[in-house]
């Protein structure tokens, strides 16, 4: 085959670009759009997470009090306002989920179980990760138990993946089952909770001990006073 001249090579390249140049340009534009789009999304996500982190810190500062102090109405109101900001503007972040659970805890401490349940249901409705979902479900069940809605609490626990929170999960399950008049099942749940605890909690062990089946007691009569059934008849 004769050698291809330089002019022929140039013509071949021109011809290729004439036939494929449009597709090449479009491909380059698409790739650049993807790259820059991803970088923009990544930057916006990072900035949103940083802003949410700052807001969450503000919330924690607002509602944190010493053990001997009570949370003031003003600080509670501030905390709730910040939590609502997080929920509205950063609903997909872990900070918003933690904020709602933080406010739920405050409501529980204040005896407002309905408000606490509302916060926890918001968390579950906003796509939390599996660990947060497990915590939220366990807390929902605990609130329902506090409202004496033990059937509902057990239903929540039945569909919950304990996800590394086995001790808390099983202890609460024991509490619910005991309230439902199922001491044998409650005892099994408490035993699982004790077994799962790395740092043993005395209260859980006490609950288990209270349900341990009593040993059979055999009465032994004094030999001199013993009488047979026939003698006593």
What can you see in these coordinates?
- This protein has 233 residues and is mainly alpha-helical.
- It folds into 2 domains: 20-63 and 71-115; 129-212, Tetratricopeptide repeat domain (Serine Threonine Protein Phosphatase 5, Tetratricopeptide repeat).
- Helix content is 74%, strand content 0%.
- The protein has 10 helices and no strands.
- Helix 1 packs parallel to helix 3, helix 4 packs antiparallel against helix 5 and helix 6 (150-158) runs antiparallel to helix 7.
- The protein is elongated.
| Overall 3D shape | elongated
Helix count, per DSSP? Answer: 10
Number of strands: 0
What is the total number of structural domains? 2
Fraction in beta strands:
under 5%
Q: For the terminal residues, how far apart are their CA atoms?
A: 129 Å
Question: Major beta sheet, specifics?
Answer: none
The helix/strand order is: HHHHHHHHHH
What is the helix fraction of residues, given as a range?
A: over 70%
Mean pLDDT: 83
How big is the Rg?
33 Å
Structural class: mainly alpha
**Uncertain runs with pLDDT below 50, 5 residues or more?**
215-233
